[in-house]
Amino acid sequence: MGLTVTTDERDDLVIVTLEGELDIYTVGAFRQETERFDPAKLQLVVDLTNVTLLDSSGLGALVSLLNRARTGEGMLGIVCPQRHLRRVFEITGLRRAFVFGDDLPSVQDALRQAAANTA
Question: Which residues have a Cβ under 8 Å from the Cβ of 69 and sit 6 or more positions away?
Fold first, then answer.
């Protein structure tokens, strides 16, 4: 299976929605799409709702994106309602590194709260 990457830009928020497998074979498409943006200057949300597989390459790409966001005022949120995908973040110790939520509104609220706490 492949990966479909779509992007929705709203003011200072960019939503990258993934569908399929984020793995060693498809991570290039994800990286290519996210390199169009400077995550250090905006809020970025990656929606994993329709992701069926997340391997170490995909996880590495998400961590790389998070590191780029942290070089400035940017923030990265993850929409991830699937327990088996969240488990990957928990096992690797990355659960607390990202702002998580089960849907877009909850991630947006969490990002707003995180921004308020850093101000």
Answer: 39, 40, 44, 75, 76
Domains and CATH numbers, the chain: 3-102 (3.30.750.24)
Prediction pTM value? 0.94
- In this structure, the number of other CB atoms found within 10 A of the CB of residue 105 comes to 10
From first to last of its 119 residues, the chain has per-residue pLDDT tens of: 799 999 999 877 999 999 999 999 999 999 999 999 999 999 999 999 999 999 999 999 999 999 999 999 899 999 999 999 999 999 999 999 999 999 999 999 999 888 888 76
